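The material for today's practical consists of a large collection of protein records. An example says more than a description, so a record of this kind follows:
***
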Amino acid sequence: MSAQSFKSKNAKKASLYSAIIPGAGQIYTKKYWKIPIIYSGLIASAYYIKQNNDQYKLYRSTYLNRINNDNNTDQFQGEYSNQDLVTLTDFYRRNREVSTLLFTLTYLLNIIDASVSAHLFSFDVSEDLSMNIKPIYFIHSKSSGIQLSFNL
């Protein structure tokens, strides 16, 4: 293998790895520090999806039982009105949907990050980056200006 093969990573491979197992693309591109961030986002989102879904089901079933005159299983009798139960049901459904969206975005950002990291894997960042500014005078047009030159 040449020295160049060690300095480049395949972005499609990194994306595929992260799509199959979140964080695998980051392992492939040697960005190990990002893996706990990815899993923290996925686990937190999954936790809130479950919590909000449980609350949604609880308030929804309580409201439906009240509508069907089945007050034997109503643990919120006297505490919440029917309108309160509808409001709580809508609130937890919305939160469940937002949590699902955040889970999906975290998963997609994991894939995008792996791809970008693979593209930039061989990007050379050296200490010799500089910009020089100097005035110049154009003889033919008898005008002056500023010349910017970058040393990369």
User: Anything to note?
Assistant: DSSP finds five helices and two strands in the chain. The first strand starts at residue 130 and ends at 138. The CA atoms of residues 135 and 141 lie 15 Å apart.
